Amino acid sequence: MDRGLSGAILAAGKGERLRGAANGVPKPLVRIGGETLLEHQARLLAIAGAEPINAIVNSETARLIQEARLNLPSGVGIIVRDTPNSMESLLVLSERIPSGRFLLTTVDAVLGVAELQRFVKVALGHYPPSAVSPDGVLGVVAWRGDKHPLFAEVAANGELTRLGGSEGKLVTAGVYVFSTRIFEFAAEARSLGLNALRHYLGFLIEKGMKLAAVELSEVVDVDEGDDLLAAQALVCRD
Fold first, then answer.
1. Residue 128 — very low, low, confident or very high, per pLDDT cuts 50/70/90?
2. Which range has the worst mean pLDDT, 76-80, 89-93, 208-212, 221-225?
3. Residue 158: burial class (beta carbons within 10 Å; 0-12, 13-18, 19+)
4. What is the CA radius of gyration of the chain?
5. Distance separating alpha carbons of residues 54 and 76, to the nearest angstrom
6. At the N or C end, where does the chain have fewer CB atoms within 10 A?
7. Cis before 134 (ω within 30)
8. Average pLDDT over all residues of the chain
């Protein structure tokens, strides 16, 4: 386990597109494999060696967690905030993230235990003490027709050269290892009115921060009803 690696989970969104298939339940509390997405992500981050782990949820999710007496893994802290967008959720999380490296996932990025462990091992391998370390490592996956992809262009050496665009072979997978150096530009990003995590990541590249990428074999982005079935199948295989 890497003692210098903390964990963070983005789970403050409303997940409107999924609610119809989830009987109105907010996305973090949708169940796969007998546990909620929030529990699943917290458990995987703990297995991957992240400690402590902090998750941000909105007030509705927090109220339902309390009503259901949901028991999250030991050491998981909850921040309750009704943030306007995913960038702001990350920046609020930064108030709790210890200085150093942290493993970040969105609550709806479902992957297997071994795959997450492989990602962490490879991502941390980008931080050799004798070389220039990147400011972040993003998990990417082959695009399989997701409706709202964030395309990623990756150089032969693994460096992330571009985010965005209307086409590409790889998309971001919702799992990251970052240095807390990425928060150095938080105030400027806010002043510019950036309003999404994807915009913040693109902004970091523009500011000269070095980001790398690791390709993953299978990650399910749980946005709609069909995604739940795919996530359930992945968890069962895992």
1. low
2. 221-225
3. middle
4. 17
5. 6
6. N
7. no
8. 91
Buried b / exposed e along 108-137 (16+ C-beta atoms within 10 A): bbbbbeebbebbbebbbebbeeeeebbbbb
Dihedral pair phi/psi, residue 45, rounded to 5°: -65, -40
Measure the N-to-C terminal CA separation of the chain; round to a whole number of Å.
21
In contact, 58 and 28? CB cutoff 8 Å: no
Q: Which architecture, in CATH terms, is 5-237?
A: Alpha-Beta Complex (3.90)
Number of H helices, E strands in the chain: 8, 13
Distance CA(231)–CA(229), nearest Å, equals: 5
Q: How many residues does the chain have?
A: 238
Taking the C-alpha atoms of residue 157 and residue 26, their distance in angstroms, rounded to an integer, is 39
